[in-house]
Amino acid sequence: MTSTLPKALAADPEPAVRVTVGRTFLAMLSREVRVLRKNFVATFVRVLLQPLLFVFVFAYVLPKVGGGAMTGGAGGGTTFSTVLVPGLVGSSIFMQGIMAIVFPLMMELNWQRSITDRALAPLPIPLLAIEKIVAGGLQALIAGLLVFPCVLFVHAGGQGPDVHVSNWPLLIFVCVFGSLLSASGGLLMGTVIDPQKAQMLFGIILMPLSMLGCVYYPWAALEHVRWLQIVSLANPMVFLNEGLRAALTPGVEHMHFYVYGTVILVGTVLMTWLAARKFTQRVLT
């Protein structure tokens, strides 16, 4: 019987393996995209509701009630809506990147055990983890794009944000790697947190990350609370929001690129490696 493989592949099966792995990776990723498209309305509402309420209250209601301009503690008459734009976009990216992975992964690993079927695909388990991170990062990136018009256009008269993209490559870098950082964090949480204690994820982890993540104020504004300014450096959301401030609102004081850029890039690599390692251990046990 003659082989149906091309001669090059028959002589060296390694290219065929690489083709199979690549196609499997893209097929599983396209499945995640189809699921996201099917549930887009629910995702749209979940992503927009909280940022819309925040920007409505702080950028529309309070200026109307107070009758004066709210400042974001950055000096120079900066409106609070200017401070809110990068903060709410960054928090949406970070939260959605975690939520898009952590609860579906808990179901796959514990109750449905559907992860076993995926592990049988011709794809190394660490690459399966990376596929989940890429899919979660894509959802996080979409969340940021959805929230941006909301925080840009909802405000009281005269309280519009002063947003100017001074560096497009910087904005793309922060959004892409910030999305992957949050998704890898979600994968890690989904593998190490006991599902029966999942409610602790909100009260002990996500809520402090959001409230102390420099969403509603720049990191420099914490200089009067020095101990909190130092402690907040353990929060990865701080660096994502500071990077977005540098790209979207350069007039507001922000960290230097070598600080937030290094943390975002190195953090993404380290978190991805650790999450893939823990994920592989859970799947194989």
Automatic annotation (TrEMBL):
Lineage start: Bacteria, Bacillati, Actinomycetota, Actinomycetes, Streptosporangiales
Identification of the protein by name: ABC transporter permease
Domain ABC transmembrane type-2: 42-282
InterPro entries (UniProt xref): ABC2_TM_bact-type, ABC_2_transport, Nod_factor_ABC_transporter
GO CC terms, sorted: ATP-binding cassette (ABC) transporter complex
One of the record's GO molecular function terms: ABC-type transporter activity
Residues annotated as transmembrane: 40-63, 83-105, 133-156, 168-188, 200-219, 257-276
Native source organism of the sequence: Actinomadura rayongensis
Keywords: Membrane, Transmembrane, Transmembrane helix
